[in-house]
Automatic annotation (TrEMBL):
<protein>
    <recommendedName>
        <fullName>Beta-lactamase-inhibitor-like PepSY-like domain-containing protein</fullName>
    </recommendedName>
</protein>
<feature type="signal peptide">
    <location>
        <begin position="1"/>
        <end position="19"/>
    </location>
</feature>
<keyword id="KW-0732">Signal</keyword>
Amino acid sequence: MKKLLIATLFLAMTASTYAATDVKADDDSKSISYTVLNQFAAEFSDATNVVWTLTTQFQKASFVSNGDKISAYYSPLGDYLGATKFVSIDVVPAKAKAEIAKKYEGYTVSYAIQVISRPYVANATDDTGSYWVDITDGKKELYLKVTPFGGIELIKESAVK
């Protein structure tokens, strides 16, 4: 149950990351906690083009680092939740790409991200290095979790709006 809750929260953050990739003229940086701003500055000192988003579920920094589009997430209380980066489907393990193509024929990849860091949490699964792939056939949107070894898990299915 705890894994499902973590996966669902991460999926919500991931989907909002994709939806918020356009640079905002006005971000939420004035509403982000001082603790989070300091943590972020220490952890991601090379970040450029930082745009902050505040929701009831998390505080998110979207930024560029070494040419990569990255998002770092913090809880409303300021705890670091992890970071992801947008990747090409080409970097997803070949085994997983082949299985996706076979099992989800007719679907196209909307985007793929990779979990690049997570804090240590006792009794939690560390999914650092895993990929989250969003695919659609125009009617349904599927969110797949892909392990670094090519295993695939369907996390969520929803109707395209």
